[in-house]
Specification:
Layout: H1 8-30, H2 35-42, H3 46-49, H4 51-65, H5 67-73, H6 76-95, H7 100-128, H8 134-162, H9 167-170, H10 173-186, H11 200-223, H12 228-250, H13 264-295, H14 299-304, H15 307-327, H16 330-349, H17 356-382, H18 390-420, H19 428-465
Helix pairs in contact: 1-7, 1-8, 1-10, 4-7, 4-11, 4-18, 5-18, 6-7, 6-10, 7-8, 7-18, 8-13, 8-15, 8-17, 11-12, 11-18, 13-17, 13-18, 13-19, 15-17, 16-17, 16-19, 18-19
Transmembrane segments: 51-70, 79-98, 104-124, 131-148, 168-185, 197-217, 223-246, 266-287, 293-312, 333-354, 360-382, 403-420, 440-458
Subcellular location: Cell membrane
Organism: Secundilactobacillus silagei JCM 19001
Length: 466
């Protein structure tokens, strides 16, 4: 059964969906390394420019929250073609943008495309791949969305250094076109569509809560962590999330089936998944900016510092998925999260004394740990829910993944900005180094938290299996 052949058409469909998802995720962090350049070009602060990433990830998250409904309502192939065309249009808007607002609009168009492309990739895998080989293919999917954020700074830095930030969008277009053509002719439709009433109010509440919490962290960078602005936005966002949950359980309209969260082992899977992705996107944002602001490195060097770790992570993820298929989820996930903890503790210890070689080495450890844990945490989590709820579980994981990236970027930027604005006679390079050190300490705490959650989860799964 484990050697069951996969039809070539299915493989091509996964490649097409994977390429589009990869391009969408690649551009998430490609722009991070351009922030110092964009700040100078448009005369804007870091807290404003970072909305290119935070706003993008917010809209991706919100779009993903609708993906379970959209996949039940429309044919997967039609959704894929819409996403591909939207990404192409967004690329043109970004590439030709005359100002920051134009660039932001283009990024938001691309966000909608990415928000549908990533869940489609996993939906095809879950629907078409036998359970015995699910780990390998989910690992490939995890590699696509997990490694691309790390490759983004290298890609963005290379283009910005050799050409300009606009080439980030032009050079990726041929890949998107190939992806759309592949998917348009190969993506299968296994499940019947149905006409359900869409929960617009639920979507609005979710969108408001996402924005309020992200904006709260942005305000913390401008006004401080004890400011009324930060706590006001944060508390308001939490209240709106509560309203969303209450509404969802009492509404007959369809958005996301929250009954998936009644499974403790699912919750204990999605929480560390959220934290791992927050660390992944957060550090992919932090390290290139740290290298430029503290060392004075150019965008090419700053982006390339995390290239080796990204490549190792990509190689490892399908292998770790095969390990899950053959020996269960416990071994690769525990090993991976242990390496992540080690890497983050090292970053925290050497936060004020980092060098480019140390960044490369520490991030290599992180990339190896990420490769063993990230995709497998999702695979293990989806297995904890009933088969009929897999679309909703897939949507929940992908939404949390992208929102984690949004929050991670906002928090890293807020801590960095607040340090740069502190009343100190230190240079901006020294202040940025101090802010970066604080970021690393926070990431180390989050890594330990994820480690504890994973241990508790496997204890519960072991008891349930007895």
């Amino acid at each position: 059964m484990s050697n069951q052949a996969i039809p070539k058409k299915t493989i091509l469909a996964i490649i097409g969906a994977g390429l589009l998802a990869f391009c969408g995720v690649l551009t998430e962090t490609s722009m991070n390394v351009t922030f110092p350049t964009l700040m100078k070009q448009f005369s804007l602060s870091m807290s404003v420019v970072q909305w290119l990433s935070t706003g993008y990830l917010l809209l991706v998250s919100l779009t993903m929250a609708t993906s379970a409904f959209v996949q039940r309502r429309f044919k997967i192939r039609s959704i894929f073609i819409f996403a591909g065309v939207a990404f192409i249009v967004g690329s043109f808007v970004c590439g030709l943008a005359p100002n920051f607002i134009g660039l932001l609009i283009g990024r938001l168009i691309q966000a909608v495309a990415t928000g549908y492309a990533i869940p489609l990739l996993f939906a095809i895998i879950l629907q078409q791949i036998p359970v015995a080989r699910l780990g390998v293919f989910m690992g490939i999917g995890g590699m696509t969305v997990g490694v691309a954020p790390s490759l983004g700074p290298t890609y963005g830095g290379m283009n910005t250094f050799l050409f300009s930030w606009r080439e980030i969008f032009w050079f990726i277009l041929p890949i998107v076109v190939i992806a759309v053509l592949l998917g348009a002719f190969t993506i299968p439709q296994k499940m019947k569509t149905r006409r359900d009433a869409f929960d617009f109010l639920g979507l609005i509440l979710l969108g408001i809560s996402f924005f309020l919490i992200a904006e709260g962290f942005t305000e913390a960078g401008n006004y401080g962590w004890l400011s009324l602005q930060f706590w006001g936005f944060l508390i308001a966002g939490i209240v709106v999330i509560g309203l969303f949950v209450y509404h969802s359980f009492h509404s007959e309209r369809d958005l996301l089936d929250l009954s998936i969260f009644k499974s403790p082992t699912f919750v204990l899977s999605i929480m560390p998944y959220f934290l791992i992705q927050l660390m992944n996107i957060g550090i992919s944002y932090l390290l290139p900016n740290y290298s430029q602001l503290v060392f004075g490195a150019n965008s090419l060097v700053a982006g390339s510092a995390i290239l080796l770790g990204s490549l190792v992570s990509g190689i490892v993820q399908p292998m770790s998925g095969r390990l899950l298929d053959s020996h269960g989820a416990g071994y690769p996930i525990r090993f991976g999260i242990t390496l992540i903890v080690i890497s983050m503790v090292l970053f925290a210890i050497f936060g004020l004394h980092l060098t480019i070689p140390l960044i490369i080495f520490f991030y290599l450890i992180f990339g190896l740990g990420f490769g063993f844990s990230f995709g497998n945490v999702m695979t293990n989590g989806i297995k904890q829910v009933d088969g009929k709820l897999q679309q909703d579980a897939n949507a929940a994981f992908n939404t949390s993944q992208q929102y984690a990236g949004s929050i991670g970027t906002a928090i890293m930027a807020a801590i960095l900005t607040s340090s740069q604005h502190s009343n100190s006679h230190l240079s901006q390079a020294a202040l940025s180094a101090r802010g970066g050190a604080h970021d690393f300490i926070l990431l180390a705490v989050l890594a330990v938290t994820a480690f504890i959650l994973i241990l508790i989860n496997f204890q519960k799964q072991a008891k349930a299996a007895q």
